[in-house]
Amino acid sequence: MTATVRTTCPYCGVGCGVLATPDGQGGAGIAGDPEHPANFGRLCSKGAALGETLSLEDRLLHPALNGARVSWDAALGTAAAELQRIAEAHGPESIAFYLSGQLLTEDYYVANKLAKGFVGTPHVETNSRLCMSSAVAAHRRAFGSDTVPGCYEDLDEADLIVLVGSNAAWCHPVLFRRMADAKAKRGTHLVVIDPRRTQTAQEADMFLGLKPGSDVALFSGLLVHLADHGFRDRAFVEEHTAGLDTALDRARQIAPDLAAVAIATGLAPQAISAFYDLFARTRRVVTAFSMGVNQSMQGTDKGNAIINCHLVTGRIGGVGQGPFSLTGQPNAMGGREVGGLSNMLAAHMHFAPEEVDRVRRYWNAPRIITGEGMKAVALFEAVRAGRIKALWVMGTNPLVSMPRADHVREAIQGLDLLIVSDIMANADTARARARTTVLLPAQGWGEKDGTVTNSERRISRQRRFLDSPGEARADWAVLAEVGRRLGHGKAFAWPSAAAVFREHAALSAFENGGTRDFDLGALADLSDGAYAAASPVQWPLPKRGGPKPRLFSDGRFFTFDRRARFVAVQPPGLAEAAGGAHPFVLNTGRVRDHWHTMTRTGKSQRLSAHRAVPFVEVNPEDAAFHGLTVGGIARVSTAHGAAELEVMVTDAVAPGHLFMPMHWNATYASAARVGALARGVPDPVSGQPELKATPAAIAAVAYRARGFVLSREAVPMPEAWWWARAAIPGGWGVQFATHDGSREVALALRGLVQAGGYELAEYADHARGRYRCAVYDGTRLVASIAVAPTEARPDWEAAKALFAAPEPEAPERRALLSGRAATEGAGPTVCACHGVGLDVITATIQGGAGSVEAVGAACKAGTNCGSCIPEIRKLLTGETAKAA
Ligand SMILES: Nc1nc2c(c(=O)[nH]1)N[C@H]1C(S)=C(S)[C@@H](COP(=O)(O)OP(=O)(O)OC[C@H]3O[C@@H](n4cnc5c(=O)[nH]c(N)nc54)[C@H](O)[C@@H]3O)O[C@H]1N2
Ligand SMILES: Nc1nc2c(c(=O)[nH]1)N[C@H]1C(S)=C(S)[C@@H](COP(=O)(O)OP(=O)(O)OC[C@H]3O[C@@H](n4cnc5c(=O)[nH]c(N)nc54)[C@H](O)[C@@H]3O)O[C@H]1N2
Ligand code: SF4
Ligand SMILES: [Mo]
Entry's SUPFAM superfamilies (predicted)? Predict the structure, then answer.
């Protein structure tokens, strides 16, 4: 295979089209697909670096049973026999599936059918509970269906875009560039509402840095403002909605006046009223929201408080207007379509008796479940309590990403049966062990075939362009095989992913007749050839009627009376207030260049350059008060767990707040699993856990020495050291901190890197705590070590540049030992695509480049994917300020 293949990016919910051209050696050239309507050829840094994540290093390639490699037959034989035994001994409800918004729709459909229809357990949960479930619940309360009304074109056509709890510049970068284009083209105003001054906020016309958890107050105040100042769309409210009076009464209680909103949100009254005015005056407004809304103990109410404001103004279903839930994962939407959440049945149907009966008949599944299963937090509690005996985890890494992850890790060990389907052998969950543990190697992106649905309901194909490695298999095929082994041959007999898709599409249309939003009737008879060639399409796509980019333009919703509902929301609040031993609010989220628990992006040196170590953002005031210094190590702890991270001092976070990224897993850092710290109190409606506000403490950790090891192969670090690993050009780098002195460090590390026959070039000054060493295999540099006292932490950027050359010349060899750069350093990477560092960009600006374009022309930074443009703009502003 070397022809170019059209496929879809496996990361975020923007769902960008990708052109992949295999190189014949297991890799591929990656480019944006100019014809895909989500990105028109653009890719962000993560998408552009996909080629660097395709290596087979650390891949799970063979099935394993209790740690030993076995055949597929043995692995699935054990899995099926154990599932059968457990179902008989403890009832099918003691079995659970924990799935993922990163599975393909076909995988998800088969898992859901197997569990709910044939194993007979309602406990089919997914990581989407931690991601989208509050938006789903808010949609259902307001619209009677889980419908995202708008489409990406609405962002191009809006005059005002309000981003609530969304760091789109980093998390939906290609969509964010569309917003920036709209700003340039039609002067679209951008408002960002976030307790943290993110890169997205830097780009905004208005930034509202509200108190965490106070969104409901802000949007209740907005509802009151709109209703009282003549912005009500009376005809729309009258004909197409219900419940305004009650919702408005409640909003008035929460936000009687501007002063009340100011107190609740911590915002200045002028800022609030400027926002209210702008919103009121602008008809074309899209309010896009993401995890700052959903991952909250009040996520559903936050969503409805936003939707209420769109309903009262009738701004929904029209061009350039509407509430817009930005989905996180590539197939968060597909998961909802198949019914992968435990409170759904299938194809946007729930548990009304006629719905259960309909799906029962369609599946021919007499044992179909009739009610909801447990939601993620409750599910893992049930695992801990021993009520769940068997768990199949597929495409998600809960030992890192679940709140109270240390408890989850412990709980899992008590299972009778743990099945993990993953692509990586080193994923934390794939390394867990229960009484019986079955590890199943999955085909990854580029190896598997199927469909995903993005944030605007657009279904795109992920296509295979690489050979399947080792014994990896498609997840749907494995699930189907287990279905057959459990005796349900007929229901699980699909010959291909296309056949699964047809069955899924036909179910969506089955006895639908316009009563359910989700309808793929037109695709129910798609031939194998048409499936193979399918272009991206948006649903609904009923047999007759054609596609609809926007829903609700006719004012008809999916409630029984076809009216949308205003929702009376609860007053704002956090699950737990910070104070006492835990005086800080710990916020968690994402960085630009890593994806979730890093099992894939961790392999890319380009993506690991932007943020190479796990860090915690601290406000300068707090840093001064707690003796925290830039680059020092701090211990952040909560009632549930602790992490050690590098300190980043920044006024992006307000005093009293901390921010920590969610990415570092146990393979990449000694102690930075975010989930261990989060409390995760679930929203009472959606069950989505609060992940943005756990009370926490922070303290400096006084390590004696700091240093790094660069090596061609990953080197394990000694116990009790702090460390963080990153892919670097030419190999792996690990930065460490230890209470040992340089002499002990030298001893420990020499032992680790020095295999037979290697030569060492060393420089030691143990009296001053310094040690450097370069390890050669002949003329080939295989490792480089540097240690110094904490306050004189050695510079890793310069050494990384030297390490990139496999056979350094004499000046570079000297530089490795002296610690002084042979040439000018580039500084930490800002532009991942072209590898341009901070120092280079700063020098370019100081040299006269006065705009993003000029910087790009001079040093290429920002000219490929554009994900770093916000950072370049920030540097420009900073340098101009300095100059003035
Ligand atoms: N680079 C990158 N991109 C990704 C991902 C990734 O791992 N890496 N993951 C994808 C996935 S699955 C998801 S779900 C999305 C998430 O995308 P986002 O939701 O944009 O990302 P987060 O960083 O989780 O959180 C967004 C913001 O919510 C803010 N926030 C915290 N508390 C509050 C609050 O009370 N109110 C408000 N208004 N805001 C608050 C945080 O400060 C943070 O800046 O990103 C997707 N895209
Ligand atoms: N504190 C805190 N916690 C959070 C969040 C937060 O903001 N803060 N965000 C939450 C959100 S929004 C999300 S979406 C979750 C994400 O959290 P997870 O879903 O746990 O994160 P991933 O790293 O994406 O896990 C995907 C796993 O599937 C594997 N995999 C990749 N491709 C395939 C495949 O084709 N088949 C199979 N079977 N496996 C595959 C990967 O190697 C990896 O182990 O984290 C949640 N947890
Ligand atoms: S914005 Fe980036 S991560 Fe998201 S789908 Fe597009 S290329 Fe992939
Ligand atoms: Mo997510």
Answer: ADC-like (SSF50692), Formate dehydrogenase/DMSO reductase, domains 1-3 (SSF53706)
Q: What is the mean pLDDT of residues 705-731?
A: 93
Q: What angle do CA 795, 799, 802 make, to 5 degrees?
A: 155
Whether residue 385 sits in one domain with residue 316: no
Euclidean distance between CA atoms 274 and 258, whole angstroms: 11
Q: Does any ligand 3 atom lie closer than 6 A to the CB of residue 110?
A: no
> Which carries the bigger pLDDT value, residue 208 or residue 821?
208
Mark whether 184 and 319 lie in a shared domain: yes
C-alpha 158/C-alpha 188 separation (Å) is: 6
Q: Which of 701, 735, 760 is the last residue in one of the domains?
A: 701
CA of 461 to the centre of ligand 3 (A): 15
| Ranges 234-248, 309-323, 355-369, 796-810: which has the least confidence | 796-810
* Cα–ligand 4 centroid distance for 327 (angstroms): 7
pLDDT tier for residue 807 given thresholds of 50, 70 and 90: confident
For the domain that residue 101 is a member of, what is the CATH number? 3.40.50.740
Q: Determine the straight-line distance between the first and last CA of the chain, rounded to whole angstroms.
A: 57
Tell me the per-residue pLDDT of 120-162, one tens digit each, with 9 for 90 and over.
999 999 999 999 999 999 999 999 999 999 999 999 999 999 9
Q: Which residues of 852-875 are buried (b: 16+ CB within 10 A; e: fewer)?
A: beebbebbbbbbbbbbbbbbbbeb
248-279: per-residue pLDDT in tens?
999 999 999 999 999 999 999 999 999 999 99
* Residue with CA nearest ligand 1 atom 38: 165
Q: Which atom of ligand 1 is nearest to the CA of 168?
A: 20
Do 709 and 692 share a domain, yes or no? no
Residue 49: give its domain's CATH number: 2.20.25.90
Check which CATH number belongs to the domain holding 655 and give it: 2.40.40.20
- Is 688 a member of any domain? yes
Same domain, 96 and 26: no
Query: Does the C-beta of 14 come closer than 6 Å to ligand 3?
Result: yes
Query: Cα 231 to chain center, whole Å?
Result: 37
> Which of 40, 155, 174, 592 for a ligand 3 pocket mutation test, highest count of atoms within 8 Å of Cβ?
174
pLDDT given at position 32: 97
- Asked if 460 and 521 sit in the same domain, the reply is yes
The residue with greater pLDDT, 436 or 748, is 436
Nearest of 38, 291, 40 to residue 166 by alpha carbon: 291
Same domain, 369 and 253: no
Q: In terms of residue numbers, what domain contains 616?
A: 584-701
The reply to whether 823 falls in a domain is: no
Q: Is the CB of 599 under 6 A from ligand 2?
A: yes
The full DSSP string for 123-191 is -EEEGGGGTTHHHHHHHHHHHSS------HHHHHH-SEEEEES--HHHHSHHHHHHHHHHHHHH--EEE
For the ranges 473-477, 758-762, 766-770, 826-830, which has the lowest average pLDDT?
A: 826-830
Q: How many domains does the chain have?
A: 6
Q: Using the atom order of ligand 3, give the atom closest to the CA of residue 174.
A: 1
Ligand 3 atom nearest residue 9's Cα: 8
508 belongs to a structural domain: yes
Measured N-to-C along each axis, helices 269-281 and 215-228 cross at an angle, to the nearest 10 degrees, of 50
> Is residue 576 assigned to a domain?
no
Q: Are residues 603 and 531 in the same domain?
A: no
pLDDT band at 474 (very low <50, low <70, confident <90, very high): very high
| pLDDT at residue 72 tops 80 | yes
pTM of the model: 0.95
Q: Residue 183: which CATH number?
A: 3.40.228.10
Q: Compute, in angstroms, the gap from residue 127 CA to the centroid of ligand 1.
A: 15
Q: For residue range 729-774, list pLDDT tens digits in order.
A: 999 999 999 999 999 999 988 877 766 678 888 999 999 999 999 9
329 CA from centroid of ligand 4 (Å): 5
Query: Could you give the CA distance from residue 718 to residue 568 in angstroms, rounded to a whole number?
Result: 55
Mutation probe of ligand 1 site: the residue of 291, 593, 619 with most atoms within 8 A of C-beta? 291
Last residue of a domain, one of 701, 731, 765: 701
**CA 116 to ligand 2 centroid distance, Å:** 23
The span from the CA of 683 to the CA of 133, in Å, is 10
User: Within this chain, do residues 432 and 375 fall inside the same structural domain, yes or no?
Assistant: yes
49 CB within 6 A, ligand 3: no
